[in-house]
Predict the structure.
Amino acid sequence: MDQLVQLAEIAEEKSKIALIDLLRLIVLEDSQAEYLLSKHWELVDVCIIGYVECQDLKDTSPDSKVIHNYHLACLKFLTNFYQTEAGRKVMTNPDKSQQLI
């Protein structure tokens, strides 16, 4: 999982979407969600929350299709965290939940 996180941090466009989607499929169990959220919170903070905050979701140009697909993968990724007990516990921590809002 650590190597996938490292790749996701440096990947771009479709490769980044694929890696985020793969990580999304990995975090279906409590232990994996807890590990990723505790050890690799920076990935969630920067590559998921921060990246989504910086993009114009109303942009409908053809170039924005990759960005919209990335947003969709990120939302699914965050949803999978909430489906685990450990993920809900970490994501409802006041410090971390404020970043989501």
